[in-house]
## 1
Amino acid sequence: MALPADFLPVDDTPTALRPALEKAWQRLSESLARADNVAEMTGQEPPSENWLALGTERRRQLARVITISDFALDTLVRYPEWLLHLDAGGELDESPQGETLAAWLAERLESAEDEAGLHAVLRRFRRARMLGIVWRDLVRPVDTDMWATAAAVSQLAEVSLEGALGWLERHFEPRWGRPAARSDGSEQRLVVLGMGKFGAGELNLSSDIDLIFAYPEQGDTQGGRTSLAHQEYFTKLGQKLIAALDAVTADGFVFRVDMRLRPLGDGGPLVGNFSSLAAYYQDQGREWERYALLKARPVAGDLEAGSELLGNLRPFVYRKYLDFGAIESLREMKGLINREVKRRGMQANIKLGPGGIREVEFVVQAFQLIRGGRDTELQVTSLRTALARLPALGLLPQGVVDELEPDYVFLRDLEHALQALEDRQTQSLPDDDLDRERVALALNMEDWPALLACLEEVRGRVRGHFDAVIADPEEELEENGEATEEGGLSLDDWRALWCGELEPQEAEAMLAEAGFAEAETALRRLVGLRQSRQVQAMQRIGYDRLEALMPLLLDAVAASDAPDTALERVLPLIESVLRRTAYLALLRENPEALSHLMGLCSASPWIAEQMARYPILLDELLTPATLYTPADKERLADELRQALGRIPEDDEEAQLEALRVFKHAHVLRVAASDIAGTRHLMKVSDYLTYIAEVLLETVLAMAWRHLVRKHGYPMRRDGSRAGAEPEFLIVGYGKLGGIELGYGSDLDLVFIHDGDSRGETDGVRPIDASVFFTRLGQRIIHLLTAVTPAGTLYEVDMRLRPSGNAGLLVTTLDAFGEYQRREAWTWEHQALVRARVVAGHPRLAAGFDAVRSEILGRERDREALREEVVKMRHKMREHLGGKSEAGQFDLKHDPGGMVDIEFLCQFAVLAMGHETPELLRWSDNMRILETLESSGRLPAEECQRLREAYLALRSTAHRASLTREAARGREADFEAHRQTVIDAWQRLLETQA
């Protein structure tokens, strides 16, 4: 039955394309007529009758699809009944689930008796599914976009691979047998890794599929007529699998297969076992192979073993440190692509040309390679997922991502439209006017010029973002004029000096011109580094990175406020990273980081030493927003939780390292803000104390989990079982308790529990509760003091516990209270003034606070107390004070120093606490002085002057630690402050002496 001439609506078809639609419809009509004739001869229902039943909207969609896509038209001409099957199965409106596709293919494969039959089934299956995918891509039903199209093609490839592989395994089993089991007894199958867009699940409409084949272990097949070595078996199976998909037959092909990403490419074995692959990547793996493996994903065969293999290769792909060397490799790869594009006249290629698809992929993958080892959220194969995660990690502004994502979608939609024309792998814009109009229609553009205008805008934005990430820093500097300011020296000048191309006198004159006061010394330092054994022994890649960095570094040194000091302090850092050249790349790729480095090192030798000792701190220079803005306690806890969440719970070594890196990084932020003057002294100490508290809370939780896993939970005194929250207290004394931590402070700690000391834990390996809590304390000390490549967390002093070094490491709350009531010396009660809970269970903390308030609030013989306090102070002065040179003053220990103020506060609390309970609330000197003022116990003016004196003394001592100087000041500078302290001391403590 002939279909009516107006069967297809033409209203939505542009005038220029209506002749093409008429020709397409003529071909379809002729095909349907032939199909009707065949149906009539065989006594079946004519297909045209079912076509007539199609609704208006479906007909409108058909007109659009066959106008744009010759592939869809050719397929329907060849198989007109497929449209009805796809429509009935819902495949024109949504993609079938993977399980459904696999079941459909399995059913069809049952009829395949030989490889020719396999090939025919696979190709017809693929063509039918691709007709549905192209249809949905061109008409865009609900929930269909570029990502859905890419996912559908990827799913089809996976189902085709798995179906073909399973059939081949079964078909050849009688001849070759099956692989021997692994050493753990599990079955062995071929592992098929999808690479590139296939691994990402983002294939385009006519993609090749990049694959790597592997198998777990060597051995021989069993159960067949011929036994083959696993290498031979999996090679033969892999060859058969490639042919099943890639070979072109009368039915076409399934997917073109590219195996060149395997080790050694076309020159290497087709299949490798896990151990040989691991050895290859470790010993010979190249940078581009890291880039390729970013997107590797098991797609067929033994998926679990594939995940195991990729887990083993992860350290090759993702470095523990920030790997800015990856940008050099990406830049080189892009350079090769650019040269090839230029040579072949492919500037209009929307994938490889400027501002094309590849540049978006390079931007995202650059961040994955550089930071994926640290920010494990980026260890994903999907570009879309990785791109969406960059703003939260502070790597790209949200506004940039909001441009890149839709621009990438536009480019991929255009790519799909180009490929939908003929099911051909192309990214080149068409020259034919008709094809141009078809592509414009596919993208819902008014015409071809409108599409080109939009494409130009998109490519311009992409190129701008690409350059911002991948561009060479030297080119950026020179384009911005930063390296050649008027009268300044160029990078070429600094390169000539570093490379020794200048005569010594010429080099010294150049350094003097650049602002070096000691040009001869500076040159000697530079020559010494260049000629050092470490530099001469560097490998080529490291040496090249040093050569590239030094002109930029010298330019930054010269631009600093104190070039001589900056050079002296930064060169040891460069020496320390000569064998870890990723840090040379980091500095070279981030000139702004160099500027921050100069400022910090010039201001503080302590920071310079920390950087040289722990080069991982260089990462902090990349984010000035956080470098000069220390985190509050809540954010610190959240950051640490996220950092540890990326590490397996059983990897203690990595956890210890992460704790130390966290501490060093955040202390550096505090020091940087201190130097920049963005934080008041009190805030600096607050932040340093927050860092210690967050780390102690984390260490306590880690130690508790460790002991509980081994021995079970201890029992409470009421007979109930302790819970997951550690029922333990860490009490901070001294500077930690007084919220006055400095940069190098150790931690004075006391451990307390309130469990049933006579009971035992409830685990498989129970131990006495007292032993459990002692081991818990030992574990905490170990976690704090163990030495890793990043050093220790803190030095720990436990001598303030009851009975000091002679006492138990951990004491019960009752025993602690009894000791304080009956045995503690006055100096121990003085120390208790500065004590507070810094980590532990809230219920126990309340119990400790009650004991502390009780002890400090007892009424004392004031005269006896005064004598004890004065006696202790004089004893300390004899041992620690009076060692300053003439005109110098020890900020802590000399009369009128910080310790005198601390003793005054402690005396006041112990003497007046029973009458003024507000004094018992605080452990820090500043708030004790404020309370003495607000309660009227001391004159307001005196309290204010004491606070000013204490702040001045602490601020100077603080700054001395950053500049690596002794905690001393000039007597003349502190005369008024010292007199304030001495007067108060005389009035309160020496009046009756």
Note: The chain has 43 helices and twelve strands.
## 2
Amino acid sequence: MRLTKEEYERLEKHYNQIHKHGVYAQAPHPERIYLSGTGIDDTKTWEFFCTKGQNSGKWKKIEVPCNWELQGFGEYTYGRWYKVPGEKPSDEIGTYRHKFEAPKHWKDKRIKIYFDGVMTDVEVLINGQSAGAIHQGGFYRFSYDITELIEFGKRNTLEVKIAKESSNKSINAAERKADWWLFGGIYRPVWLEVVPKINMRHFILDARHDGTFSAAVEMEGDAQGYELSVAIRELNDGKEILTKDNQPLLTHRITNSDSEQQLKGVYKSVKPWNTENPQLYLASLTLKDPSGKAIQTRETRIGFRTVEFFPQDGIYLNGVKLVVKGINRHSFSVDGGRTTSAAMSRHDALLIKEMNMNAVRSHYPPDEHFLDMCDSLGIVYMDELAGWQNGYDSKVGPGLVKEMIERDVNHPCIIIWSNGNEGGWNYALDSLFAKYDKLQKRHVVHPWADFNELDTHHYPAYLTGVARLTNGYKVFMPTEFMHAMYDQGGGAGLRDFWNRWLTNPMFAGGFIWVYCDEAPKRTDKGGILDSDKSNAPDGIVGPRREKEGSFYAIRAQWSPIQLKPLLITTHFNGSFLLTNEYTYTSLSQCRMIYKVLSCSTPLQDKGETTILAEGEVRLPAISPGETGTARFIVPEGFHNGDVLHLEAFDKEGKSICEWSYPIHLAKQYFEQKLSQPPMSLNLTEQATATQTTDEVILNSTSVCVTFDATTGLLRRVKAGDKEIPFKNGPRPIGMKMQYQPSSSYIRTAEDGAIFCAKYRGGADSIVWKLTGNGLLYMDAILLNRASGGGGFDDAFMDTQVYNLGLTFSYPEQACTGMRWMGRGPYRVWKNRIAGTTYGIWQKEYNNTITGESYENLVYPEFKGYHANMYWATLESDTAPFTVYSRSDGIFYHIFTPEEPAGRVKDTMPKFPEGDISFLLDIPAICSFKPIEQQGPNSQPGNIRIKSGDEGLHLNLMFDFR
């Protein structure tokens, strides 16, 4: 039965909105007659009655599909309710009503009603009569044959009674005692299918990368004498694919009454489906009656590919070992709860690919259209039977395994089945996966367990534990690692783990936790977004898919093109080394461009970027796993630039990653720019230095700087009549230092007024010089004496260095923004610098708390550490100033981010005291495991001072004018 013209045109228009770049769902599914809408962006209005909570006790209108809480009914519950003493999950019951027409010409057909996802126990009535047994289980497609209940030629009444909490304890334990939001209602589409009395009820396809094709078709009714045929066509142009016998069809005459019929053949000249070349075809299965009339056609997209698992070896896709770069993902939308849309699935899949990922896992079967997107984009999928930490019993479990696999079995993206999570499995169900996936028999795992020759250990440490991967002999693929709660984890230290694990040939990849913050709109709280404190702000993107810093860090560290360390010097000849980390693609199919950027300073103008030169980089034609040399012709005037920017593109022209390298390090840059002085640097009267018992004053015609004569601390800065509230420093961070007033001194030199502050401990001296045109230089020598100059009974520096440098005070409320040159635009941690690039950046002040400020979620966050500062202008309506780095590798700490109010414990390492700091080292961010279990680039620093060391230099220049 086909859709009506009106229905088809409505769905076609809806889905055409997402059919871009060849990425689309299989909709509009012409065999379906939708009673609901198709997603959160396409709903229909039904009648609804709720027993408890919001809007309960009366019939009202509701949009379908959508979880009823998001429509203003019932009560919200987060799945870790059992952690709260005395708490119980909400348990309202909802009843839906909807009327639909059943034309008279349906009379000789079978009428089936399908529900793609309903939470949780569902009783379906048609015209007041039961459609069948109550369905239990909230993440699975189910159906009823309602032929005998339909009144043809009339309006029929559909009534759906739903209990949010199941009467089956194992379903509640598996699905509703879990680390996710618990919802109720019809959250995926509802439709009718009108099929012949004798029909193809279900079919399983297996298309191998060598062209071998098999189909197992389950017939409904006695089909003896009927004929089955299969045609394969190109998806884009409809061109027929021929068998090795040059036939356009595989045909099979049904000669018995068996319910299962099989077809086999071999197609020639097929292009295999893989993660980098997701070639899809359209398979059409046609059933003809004994007279030769086609009575039913079913179509689905397929990919010719072969998935194999070999113990003590790995997972192979088309004979090539696969290393998955994966992410865990919930089906989630702010406005729909578990109700999403094909457009959202497309958006999510494209963002996942943008992070250079190739795999996804979730804790339950996803929306069908998300699997469609994975098929289209080449994202492999681990499809999981729900069971967060408790499994289904053997009464309901077998039926749910069957429902999951029947829906998803033909998706080429699915490479592994998963039975539960973290103990949430029933061993008795394991054998059923092969029963229902009878042609491919894909591998089955128990996530976090060492099971079935595949170790899926969750949140492994850098060295993974005794006999797991370190000196272990099973295929290793952590199904959760790098926990991204708040601003933690995600991309922090990812490359350390990855490089370490890749040294073992049995490493098969892993899945980061998790894709997005799960913060639904609370209709009972004025529409706020709520992640239930620290339970669900675990995403790399926000609830509306806002990109956090980890997004770009992962993109860089999982780029299929990896550049070897590169330093631009005067000897640079345009060549550099890179490695091909694709699985199938030669770099001859990719391209790269370069740009030479000139970055001016606020001394010259506002600080602007100009492209001096750009062109193509010649990539080496290297195969996956190989390293080669890329080259470009160094343009004339290359060393007049400040930054080399590189960008690589895949064979489809999509950006893979961006890299940048300073052509001049900070000291060189500063000296070069200062040698081109603007008018504002014309010499004026000589600056003076004076000292009283209380103060040291450096004075020029435009700027006056006052220090405390007893502490050496900056007390006051005035630019003309305006006071700049930058003061109370330099104070030591990560070390101790004692000001020595008796050995400190002032003097006036030709190039400025000087105050030399001497110290014991971590600092030797800090020399301040104010020039006649009002520029204030600071030259600090740190950690050049093993004894620290004496005077300390204990160590004068931290044994483990997390922060090291100098800090000052500045009132946060005076700041309106920041413009700077350095790595940006996101803040960094010691183990999450990847993903930031050199350039000139601008951001307005914000107080974003990552994963919590949902009502004003502004990324990039303003506060925190920023890497490789060259200069930074602190913008203010009343007290702006600019600071320039004359030392390399300076981290610029600007204010201290607030901790999330909903945290269980602090989420960030301790920031330095003070408001603005200039640091030579900063801490790493924790990724679920403590820092000591992270990789080498996450570890705190250490200092060793030897006789003759020149010490560490922290040299700055301030422009307060």
Note: The CA atoms of residues 115 and 142 lie 6 Å apart.
